[in-house]
Design brief:
Beta Polymerase, domain 2; seven-stranded mixed β-sheet; alpha+beta
Length: 319
């Protein structure tokens, strides 16, 4: 387990606690805001912290479960929420937050966030810091949602690249493979992003209900708006990927039909001389048998009928 700590006091970042024992001491200090991040802890690592802060056992279990659904729950004075952060390459990492009056405890399963950048952004806004843990929770959620937007933008650009080659020849197999991969990525993003709408919505409601945090409400609504935009974008991408897949399948069917038309046309053309030569090759007398006129009449019949069939198929774009 790796522990990273930050602390703010009087509108500025101060000396960070050196361990969890120092964190527990500062959480009770009303003049200090502390943030402790635990990377890949075990249940044994969390037990002393959970006992000291009286964290709910269900929340601890949810924080350590790999495939827990994103959600926000209130346990007494502690607000617990868990969600997924997404890196630029689409790597998922679970992050759970225990927000309390004196600080924020985060538990991460996998690394995909730049904590120093988030702490720096929070430190650059002293007015924001006076709202305490709620503002820090909002800053962290905003960073996670920005990661969603960046990833959705990257997937959208990949889809644009596929659309640009959709009508090029011999690209059907590649497009089918890439759209299947995009379909899986969009499906993963839907499972990650859509539930965060409820988390952001609950944060807006809790902020609006607290008289002391009313000035923070526009920031909470902004994060909620970004979350809704990312969710709507993911839904739109899902439809767009399905549209590209359907169009590609239709084009492949069209190309197959074109090939079958050509094969059928040439088979019909070849059947004509086969029929004529088979007729003149019978072992019975026929008009022109044993004479040059018989030979030339068969040749002329083959050439004329082949030309007629070829012209007819060309006019119908079968050849």
């Amino acid at each position: 387990m790796k522990v990273t700590t930050y602390a703010w006091q009087g509108g500025a970042q101060t000396h960070a606690p050196e361990g969890l024992d120092d964190v527990l001491g500062l959480v009770e200090d009303p003049d200090v805001l502390v943030w402790a991040d635990l990377l890949d802890p075990t249940e044994e690592d969390l037990r002393p912290l959970a006992d000291a802060l009286r964290l709910d056992p269900h929340a601890i279990e949810d924080a350590l479960t790999q495939h827990e659904r994103p959600k926000a729950v209130r346990y007494g004075d502690v607000t617990f929420c868990t969600l997924y952060a997404v890196s630029d390459r689409g790597v998922l990492a679970r992050i759970s937050m225990f927000a309390m009056r004196g600080g924020l405890i985060t538990v991460r399963l996998g690394q995909s966030l730049d904590l120093d950048e988030i702490a720096h952004d929070f430190s650059e806004n002293p007015d924001f810091q006076r709202f305490g843990c709620r503002a820090l929770e909002l800053t962290l959620l905003d960073a996670v949602v920005d990661g969603y937007t960046a990833r959705v933008t990257a997937v959208d650009e990949q889809l644009d690249d596929l659309e640009s080659i959709l009508f090029e020849n011999h690209m059907g197999k590649r497009i089918a493979t890439d759209t299947f991969a995009l379909h899986k990525q969009v499906g993963t993003l839907r499972r990650v992003v859509l539930p965060v709408r409820d988390i952001a919505g609950s944060l807006v409601r809790r902020t609006a209900a607290d008289e002391g945090l009313r000035e923070l409400l526009p920031y909470a609504e902004d994060v909620y708006d970004h979350t809704m935009r990312a969710a709507d974008w993911v839904e739109g991408l899902r439809d767009a990927v399905e549209s590209v897949r359907s169009t590609n399948l239709a084009l492949m069917d069209y190309q197959m039909n074109a090939v079958m038309k050509k094969l059928t046309s040439w088979a019909a053309i070849i059947a004509v001389p086969t029929l004529i030569t088979g007729y003149y090759g019978m072992n019975v007398p026929y008009p022109g048998d044993g004479k040059s006129i018989g030979y030339w009449s068969s040749v002329i019949a083959m050439v004329v009928l082949v030309a007629v069939l070829y012209i007819a198929f060309r006019r119908r774009n079968w050849l």
